[in-house]
Amino acid sequence: xxxxxxxxxxxxxxxxxxxxxxxxxxxxxxxxxxxxxxxxxxxxxxxxxxxxxxxxxxxxxxxxxxxxxxxxxxxxxxx
Length: 79
Hints:
Blueprint: H1 8-11, E1 30-36, E2 42-48, H2 54-78
Antiparallel strand pairs: 1-2
């Protein structure tokens, strides 16, 4: 893996994202990527746009995990 950062469209060709709201300016990106490795096995990887403030990243990920847990719990209750 090269440490040199490259534009997202070069690193993740063919991938698309929902755009930010008008007026929002991106400051940091954390991408969780599901991929196939050289052997055709599914693997997970992550990439960042710059060195992360680990406390901010942990806080943001904790919130996302809690939101996902609530969504999944709500879906289980609908069955």
